[in-house]
Amino acid sequence: MNSMAAAIRPQLRIRPVNLDTGRENVVVISRRSQALRAEVFRGFSRVELRCNSKILLATLILTDDGLVGIDELGLAEPAFRRFGEPAGSLVTVTPAASPESLDAVRAKIHGAVLSDADIGAIIGDIANYRYSDMEIAAFLIGSASFMSSDELLALSQAMAQAGTRLNWTRPIVVDKHCIGGIPGNRTSMVVVPIVAAHGLTIPKTSSRAITSPAGTADTMEVLARVDLGADEMKQVVSACDGCLIWGGHVNLSPADDILISVERALSLDTREQMVASIMSKKIAAGSTHLLIDLPVGPAAKLTTGVAAMRLRKLFEFVGDRFGIAVEVIMTDGRQPIGHGIGPVLEAQDVMAVLANDPAAPADLREKSLRLAAHLLEYDPKLRGGSGYARARDLLESGAALKRMQMIIDAQGPSSSRTDLGKLTADIKAQRTGVVVSIDCLRLNRLARSAGAPIDKGAGIRVFKKIGERVEQGEPLYRIHACDTPEFDLAIAAANASTGYVVGHGAREAGA
What we know:
Helix content is 41%, strand content 20%. The protein is α/β, with parallel strands linked by helices. The chain has a six-stranded mixed β-barrel with strand order 1-5-2-4-3-6. The protein has a four-stranded antiparallel beta sheet with strand order 12-15-17-13.
């Protein structure tokens, strides 16, 4: 009976259609389709595709414009790629029930504490693209209201297990991570070649920007290819002792990249989700020693030392449970680091520091050396307290620059557009005085308004930092954009609020 029912299920021939639907699987049928009557799918937003042993859940869209024939099923580009069947293959299509794990999401929204199995099922369904963006958002918002310590551990574990797990034959595998929020804070791209030049293993996988104008992966992509697979990554690390790549392509904690893409739209970045995101990738990457940078400042993600201490304890708690030696340091998050904000401008800063250029940003250089020193002192052969001197020697001798060039060559050339935005405007001080404060969040938003990180050449070049004197009419920073709409938007936003406070003392305001 079941075999007869299966035999008479209507089938359609699949074909790719030129629709970029992001992460979501979307399929298209003609409203005149004789095989799939629209009324059959009334009340169902999703369908299940079957071909041989392959199954794909997708959102169904009806069309009247001839995009697909009456005997065809159009698969948007992400769905066609994930399904992996050639065009013309016959598939059966049936209404799809919602994933069972959504019951746990509904329970979480109502304040329930979820079990390890519940969280594992949710992450498994997210990693396999069974959730819509709306359903993912429901899970994130439900979790943002409250997450227990056991749920945090379960989330970290489930996310780490959902993708690739890397194992290294070396006893010490170091890594560093900054929680972000500080414009231009591209220390990883200086730290990795210093540490690798010393001989420690540092396979750095990074995320793309969530709410900032650039992540490490976005900036490194200006210099080299970052979308390496796991085998390619291992080859680079074997040759260079380090790498700087995008973690999403290695499939480390793939659910995290999906969650991040929804968090970006919601501007959501809670402590527990942040810790699970970072630690799941470090667990999956095989790190044994991890340095966490927590910038603290009025407009940083962490505004007080108390908030930083609470986050520090969460990182240490998860690290202890998964056997990773975690060291957490608090750094100055009151203002941007370096001269540039945005991928191309930040890459210029990084290479200037590595080349020992006298015009290189001193704050980026100094912070990178201090972070590298912490990692180098995990080497048992290095005497305690000598990490900074060793890091400085590797930088000043040119060894770090040489190692960076090795990493760039091993990862291969970038295919991204890497020219600096030609549309520019200087945002000037409205009064003479001293820079009292800089709103990091405001500058991040202005750089994103200008087009970063999608346009790698967009962003902001900073001219003035806290404590520096500025004359009325003197530029505070320069906006770079690649296209007119973003350029106009960024200028209008900067004119409304520069993000700078200029005065004669800490209590005076006005730019």
